[in-house]
Design a protein that fits this description.
heterodimer, A: mainly alpha, 3 domains, rod-shaped, B: mainly alpha, Rna Polymerase Sigma Factor, Chain: A, Arc Repressor Mutant, subunit A, 8 helices, 2% strand
Amino acid sequence: MAGMTPDERLSMLLSCYLDGELTKDELAEVVDVLEHDVAAIAEFRRLKEARNALRTLPTPRMPMYLLPAGHLGSELSAYLDGELATGELPRISGHLDVCAECRDELADLDRSRTAVRSLPGLEPPDFLALARDAREARTRARWPAVAAAVTGLAAVAIAFTVGIGIGDRGTVAVDVAELEARHGAVVSGTSVTGIRTSSP
Amino acid sequence: MGTLTEHVDLSWEDVAHRYGRKIYTFAYRLTGNPDDAADLVQDVLLRVRKGLENYTPGSFEGWLWRITRNAFLDGVRKKKRRPTVPFPEGDHVAYGSSPSPDEVLASVRLSDDVQSALLKLPFEFREAVVLCDVVGLTYEEISAAIDAPVGTVRSRIHRGRSQLREMLTWPV
C-alpha cells in the first residue's frame, strides 16, 4: 500500500471489505469509519455499485458443442455418411477435436465402411427370383388391360428408339439381346405383355 | 484421469463440465467477443487435458485459471489485437462525479454499458475485477492465477472498480 494517500488506502479497504477480504484489524478500522464518515459511506456505495454492476451481468450463453457430451456413438456413422444436420456439425467436430476415443472409433468405422463398399455384388438366390415372378404374375392377372397398355407403350417406345437408331446410323444393326442385357429388359416371344422389366 | 485434490478425482471431461461455462464467461467478459471466448474454451480444455498428466495436487483453481490466463494472453499475442467494443452512440461518460444515493439508485445500467466500460479498463484491472466479480474467485485464488501478491490483487480490484464506477456515472 506504499505510495497511497490515506483516502486511497481507505477506499481500497472499503473495496476489500465488500469481498470479505480484510484482516481483523482492517475490519475494525473500516467498521469504525463507516459509522461516522459520510464521505466514506458515499465511497463505499460507489464501489458497491461497480461491484454489483459486474456481478449482475448476465451469464453469456456458451455454445454447447464446446463441452464434451459423452461419446458420439451412432452419430459417427451418420457423420461419415453426411447425414447429420448442418447445425450438428460444430458439436461433432468439436468433440472429435478433443476426444481421441471417438477419433479412433471414427477411423475404425471408416475402414469398415470402405471394406463393405468394396465387396463384389451378389446375385439374389433363385427362390427370391421365383417369388418375384409369382408376385408379378398376380399383378398382371389383376391388371391385364393396364399392363397391356403400359407394356405396349414400352414396346412402341423401344421400336421407335430402335428405328431412330437405324435411321440415324444407316447400316448400324441393333442387337436386341444387347439392349436387353444393357437395360435389364426381358423380351417375351409369345406373351401379350411383350416385355417385362426385371427387378433392379 | 488426474488427481486434482486429495479428495476428488476429476477427468478432463469433469473439468470441462464444471468449469467450461466459467472459462467462457471469463473470456467473453474480457474480450466482449463470443468467437474469441469459444476459441479460448477449446484451447484451455486441450491444455487441461495435457496438463492433467503432470498435475501436482495444490490449488486447482489457481492452476486452472493460470492456464486460462496464459491461453488468453497467447491468443491475444497471436492475433496481435485487443478486441474492443465501442461505446454506443449517445452514451455519456462523466469523470470525477460524486453522485448522491438517489443518483446511484437512479443509475440503472444495461449490461452492454457495463461491458463497454469493462473493455475500457486497462487489462490488469479488467482481469482482476472479472476474476473476482464475474468468475467469483477469492483474492488468494486470483493471486495464484495471475502470479502476483495478494496486495497487488487488492489494489487492482479496487482501481478497476473505481474506474468502472466513474465510467458508469452520468447526470440524472
